[in-house]
Write a structure and sequence with these properties.
It is a single chain. The chain is of the alpha/beta class and 315 residues long. It is built from ten helices and eight strands. The chain has an eight-stranded mixed beta sheet with strand order 3-2-1-4-7-6-8-5, with helices on both faces. Helix 2 links the parallel strand 2 and strand 3 (65-70). Helix 7 (223-243) packs parallel to helix 10 (282-300).
Length: 315
């Protein structure tokens, strides 16, 4: 048990996902708040057009203070940065609007940070049991935020659906890059932040007993949605290649075109498999990532870099 007088801000950004959010907040009604902890939940409505506002306004648990925020401009990173600026906690904990945290999630995730064992932490994320199917491999699940691959890693990257870090980190690291993440290029907002946290000398840790289930929309678990996700991942990687890693790729549009041709050949050879598959194969997925990555890099390479090499803040 951590000492008394400790404060945590839980941050969730949501956009037009009212029913999933309702399930997440229902799970938080069962959340245990350790004695002496002061906990607030910041719910940021990122321009929703459904019943999200009503769901947020109706959620008033006894042990957690709820604060409603609004970020009409599309972009999850914008919404999270707004919440960071408003948050009062010593530790900032992040999760999503389609999860089910375990009853002891808060203490398991934040306790080791309070105890000085690490500066930032990522917890265990598993896929909801009703979404499991034989076609989903560990590769697919990793892109649905499952964290099995982090088991045993030292200084792991963070995953935005289940992570926390000391507020003091923000004295060196600027927060989320608003050109990344959902509503922008699509991904890598949490990955870049994790890399910056580690580059600043802070310690990250994987906490397997800080558990939550991911309940994504089942419509995400099909071939077309996965390939759209692969395209967004590639674009986000292309952004990081230029702006943060300072990589130099020769003839990136040519490399993208060559990969497109090779993907076409691959698809022709595997037409029967593709026709019967319910999900994208890892091979097809990674071809699409590469095509999108080089295409986006070609765009970004025409811009001034947003970061010094492996920089902690833009500019």
């Amino acid at each position: 048990m951590a000492p008394t007088g400790l404060s945590v801000s839980i941050i969730i950004s949501t956009r037009s996902n009212a029913e999933a959010l309702r399930g997440t907040l229902d799970a938080f009604l069962k959340a245990e708040v350790p004695p002496g902890w002061s906990v607030e939940l910041l719910l940021v409505d990122n321009g929703s057009t459904d019943a999200t506002a009503e769901v947020i306004q109706s959620f008033r648990p006894e042990s957690i203070r709820v604060r409603d925020l609004s970020m009409p401009a599309r972009g999850k990173s914008r919404a999270l940065n707004l919440a960071i600026a408003e948050a009062e906690g010593e530790i900032l904990a992040f999760t999503d609007d389609d999860v089910r945290p375990a009853h002891d999630w808060l203490e398991r995730l934040c306790g080791p940070i309070f105890a000085g064992e690490c500066d930032a932490a990522v917890g265990r994320i598993t896929l909801a049991p009703h979404l499991e199917c034989p076609e989903l491999t560990s590769f697919h699940k990793s892109w649905l935020a499952c964290t099995d691959k982090l088991e045993g890693q030292e200084d792991p990257d963070l995953v935005g659906a289940n992570m926390a870090f000391r507020r003091a980190i923000l004295e060196k690291v600027a927060g989320f890059d608003e050109e990344l993440g959902p509503g922008a290029l699509g991904f890598m907002d949490d990955i870049l932040l994790a890399k910056q946290i580690k580059a600043a000398g802070f310690r990250t840790r994987y906490l397997g007993d800080a558990r939550l289930e991911h309940h994504p929309n089942p419509a995400r678990i099909n071939r077309s949605s996965m390939l759209a996700q692969a395209q967004a991942i590639g674009a986000s990687e292309g952004y990081l290649d230029h702006h943060w890693h300072h990589r130099r790729f020769r003839a990136p549009l040519l490399q993208s075109a060559v990969r497109s041709l090779r993907l076409g050949v691959w698809r022709a050879r595997h037409r029967a498999e593709i026709g019967s598959a319910s999900v994208a194969s890892p091979e097809e997925f990674m071809w699409v990532v590469g095509i999108s990555r080089y295409r986006q890099y070609a765009k970004e390479s025409k811009r001034p870099r947003n970061y010094a090499l492996h920089g902690l803040k833009r500019g």
